[in-house]
Specification:
The complex is a heterodimer.
Chain A (H helix, E strand, L loop, with lengths): L24 E2 L5 E5 L9 E2 L6 E2 L4 E4 L8 E2 L4 E10 L5 E9 L19 H10 L12 H4 L10 E5 L9 H8 L1 H15 L3 E7 L3 H10 L6 E6 L8 H9 L14 E5 H12 L6 E7 L7 E6 L4 H8 L8 E4 L6 E3 L12 E5 L1 H4 L12 H5 L6 H9 L3 H6 L10 H5 L6 H17 L1
Parallel strand pairs in A: 1-14, 9-10, 9-12, 10-11, 13-17
Antiparallel strand pairs in A: 2-8, 3-5, 4-7, 5-6, 7-8, 13-14, 15-16, 15-17
Chain B lengths: L18 H23 L2 H23 L10 H11 L7 H15 L13 H12 L1 H4 L3 E2 L2 E2 L3 H6 L12 H7 L11 H13 L6 H16 L4 H6 L3 H8 L10 H21 L6 H18 L11
Antiparallel strand pairs in B: 1-2
Helix pairs in contact in B: 1-2, 1-3, 1-9, 2-3, 2-4, 3-4, 3-5, 4-5, 5-14, 9-12, 10-12, 10-13, 13-14
Classes of the chains: A alpha/beta, B mainly alpha.
Chain lengths: 438, 309
């Protein structure tokens, strides 16, 4: 079988085996849900409800006029108790609507477009926005914006990201295995919106069952092709995926649309289908719960707004063993300082990692081994960033193409000296952005 | 509220490889050559090596103390410098010169630059160059089986018959190290075994030693020498597998490493055939060490999506 791949990258221990055969379980909606009013890249939302209001499951409860935004919906039926400024998993605090679940699961009236094939593109895009759909692969870019590329570019291919290259995670894997039809239907809707005839689904070859499942579900659709990928991190990076599958290189500083491509996550496609044909807004999420400190690693379908603490209690956690609690994968996920934060639309994993897994180690001098350079999928010299950051040489970091860094963490992962590479990169990017604004 | 958990940027997992593991792999790889040296030169080869290693570790520890740095003599890098320094001197060299030379290796070659990772030149070769300048006779007197004599390269340079150097098949002698020369340089076989281990462990890119040895072979052929003998003799294998591949003092991209390797091979050929020394490995590596910043500058990796200018 031909395997597609890109140059560079690393191959961390996959740690998929703990949850790859765990069928998705449904976690009952908790008594209290905490819906954060910032779930995606872009502006925080304004609440459309106030304490004391009764809300229905699927009812829109917050929205924004800002271009880069998507509304959020109540994951349960119940009564709004409070709107408070609370910690959420993306850093800092944000307004959060706390809803007491009445357990009725009473649905709001949900608009659908059953006959999407004859619907105009604008209506479908508006409906995708209305359902609060964002890219659930991690970045949470609002999907209606991504599916509406600039008029001056021609999109010829839809690339579907089913790589799930982050270790530990199996949320997308299980969804491709258990509900391939929704994904394929979603892909067809997206192809219709983009007006493209070709869709390529990239899946790493450590998920043979998902590959088989998606091939089977796409039989008869000539435009949809499953492309097995070499298991290599960051295979799911947009630019790496396009390079691997289509051998096209997105130019530095440009978006995939520059080479005629739009990339979507497979789970997002299922949401598009569910939103348009069934009318269901994005109110739940499949989350992989794993890590050595978890007693029963599992894949759990949870409502947005479920507290991490409740999920950890459900899966069982050895709290004394936890070195780091991470939302997302171990390579790009975010460390959490508390369990008292809720699931957001981009939550794909919840990892309770022990010191044996995180392998902390004192930072040493750079020995110029060049492993970070070999691992960088963007062709950068990461070792220079730690060096330059130490002397506040931010502009020089820009000359070393810092803004092309996709923050995949491959360099920091591979470094035998455990250099603070991602720290330097994060600070450098922030500094360069501030300087660019001035 | 539950206890606050540890923060920190991604990635939250890291490779099991550490600087120590890299260094200890190199030390393991140097052992076959050390065993061959003991076999050929006797137990003094081992004593000399241990003295050099001890001196290097002590010097590094004292310097780290004086400079207010963390004491990290156990990271293995000073051990490597000690072994390599012992490997590039004759077994007959006085112990006090060994001590001075290996102390200079660490002091001048490494710590004054700021310690591990900051040095430009291979520390062991800095020590060797110092000794060569200070006690030229001591470092060029080679004894085998109680008899002083020329090395193979020396003999070839002076147009002598190779069989004069030692009895038996000269190629086999060169392979096993049964000829006059420095402690760790002579046995091509021992070095090859260690080198193969490093390549297997992913610490060394096979292209670097291959290019150096290949260039010298081709060069010797072009200058009318014996290519096989030139490839097997002198410090070529030791330098090619263990010094030109030193991460700190070689370029950090593959392309750069290949240019670096070719430069070393070309300089060695030039010195051996046109220079004043019979052997040129040490100086070739030191010279190319100095060129590394320039090579790094002009062999940047290709930016993904980089637009051709």
């Amino acid at each position: 079988m031909k395997l597609f791949t890109f140059k560079g990258g690393v191959h961390p221990s996959e740690n998929k085996v703990q949850t790859e055969n765990e069928a998705i379980q449904t976690f009952d909606a908790p008594k209290m849900v905490h819906v954060a009013l910032l779930q995606h890249i872009g502006a925080p939302l304004n609440a459309l409800v106030k304490p004391g209001d009764r809300v229905l499951k699927g009812q829109k409860i917050a929205d924004s006029e800002a271009f880069m935004s998507a509304p959020v919906h109540s994951p349960v039926s119940g009564v709004v108790k409070k709107i408070e400024f609370l910690p959420f998993p993306l850093s800092g605090k944000v307004n959060t609507i706390i809803i007491e679940n009445d357990g009725e699961e009473e649905l709001a009236e949900l608009k659908t477009i059953k006959d999407w094939k004859s619907a105009p593109k604008e209506d479908l895009l508006a409906m995708i926005r209305e359902k609060g759909i964002v890219g659930v692969g991690g970045a949470c870019f609002p999907t209606h914006i991504k599916l509406n590329p600039p008029k001056d570019v021609t999109i010829d291919t839809l690339v579907m990201n089913g790589a799930e290259c982050e270790p530990y995670l199996n949320a997308d894997n299980r969804l491709m295995l258990e509900d391939p039809k929704s994904i394929i239907e979603g892909i067809k809707i997206i192809m219709h919106i983009l007006g493209v005839k070709n869709a390529k689904i990239g899946i790493e070859n450590n998920k043979p069952e998902a590959i088989a499942s998606m091939i089977k579900a796409s039989e008869g659709d000539n435009g949809i092709e499953v492309c097995p990928l070499k298991t290599q991190y960051p295979q799911g990076g947009e630019k790496q995926l396009i390079k691997a599958i289509l051998d096209r290189e997105v130019p530095s500083g440009k978006l995939p649309s520059a080479v005629g491509v739009v990339v979507q996550n497979t789970a997002t496609a299922a949401l598009v289908y569910d939103g348009i044909v069934n009318g269901m807004p994005l109110i739940e999420k499949v989350v992989t719960i794993s890590g050595k400190a978890i007693k029963k690693p599992m894949n759990l379908k949870v409502r947005i707004g479920t507290m991490f603490k409740d999920m950890l209690d459900y899966a069982g956690v050895e709290r004394e063993e936890v070195d780091k609690l991470v939302m997302g994968g171990p390579m790009m996920g975010m460390a959490q300082h508390t369990e008292d934060v809720p699931v957001v639309k981009g939550t794909s994993g919840l990892l309770a990692l022990t010191t044996a897994e995180t392998n902390p180690c004192k930072a040493k001098n750079c020995i110029l081994c060049g492993k970070c350079i070999g691992a960088c999928p963007m062709g950068l010299e990461p070792l220079m960033y730690a060096k330059l950051a130490k002397f506040n040489q931010w502009e020089e970091m820009g000359k070393y193409k810092l803004m092309d860094c996709i923050s995949c963490g491959s360099c920091a992962y591979i470094c035998p000296s455990n250099r603070p590479l991602t720290e330097a990169i994060n600070i450098g990017k922030a500094k360069l952005r501030t300087m660019a604004r001035k | 509220m539950a206890k606050l958990l540890k923060m920190g940027p991604s990635p939250h997992v890291r490779t099991s490889e550490t600087v120590e593991k890299v260094m200890y792999d190199v030390i393991i790889a140097l052992l076959p050559a050390l065993l061959m040296a003991v076999y050929v030169f006797g137990i003094q080869a081992l004593t000399t090596t241990l003295i050099a290693v001890g001196t290097c570790m002590a010097t590094e520890g004292i310097m780290q103390k004086i400079m207010g740095k963390d004491i990290e003599v156990k990271d293995g890098s000073a051990v490597i410098t000690g072994i390599l320094f012992a490997f590039v001197v004759p077994v007959t060299m006085a112990y006090w010169i060994i001590i001075v030379g290996s102390a200079v290796s660490i002091l001048l070659g490494k710590m004054l630059f700021g310690g591990l990772g900051h040095n430009i030149f291979n520390p062991a070769l800095v020590g060797r160059a110092f000794v060569q300048a200070s006690w030229p006779v001591a470092i060029t007197t080679f004894v085998l089986d109680g008899q002083a004599g020329p090395t193979m390269l020396d003999a070839m340079k002076r147009g002598l018959d190779g069989t004069l150097v030692a009895a038996g098949n000269p190629y086999m002698n060169a392979l096993l190290g049964k000829m006059g020369g420095c402690i760790g340089e002579t046995s091509a076989l021992g070095l090859l075994l260690g080198g193969a281990y490093l390549i297997y462990k992913g610490q060394v890119n096979w292209k670097v030693p291959a290019i150096i040895i290949g260039t010298v072979g081709v060069g010797a052929f072009l200058f009318g020498g014996d290519p096989i003998m030139h490839m097997l003799s002198g410090g070529l294998f030791l330098g090619a597998f263990f010094m030109a591949t030193d991460m700190v003092t070689s370029p950090y991209t593959e392309k750069g490493q290949m240019i670096f390797a070719f430069g070393i091979g070309a300089l060695v050929t030039l010195i051996r055939f046109k220079g004043g020394y019979p052997e040129g490995m040490a100086y070739s590596i030191l010279i190319m060490n100095g060129v590394v910043p320039l090579i790094n500058k002009y062999t940047k990796p290709k930016l993904f999506g980089g637009v051709a200018k």
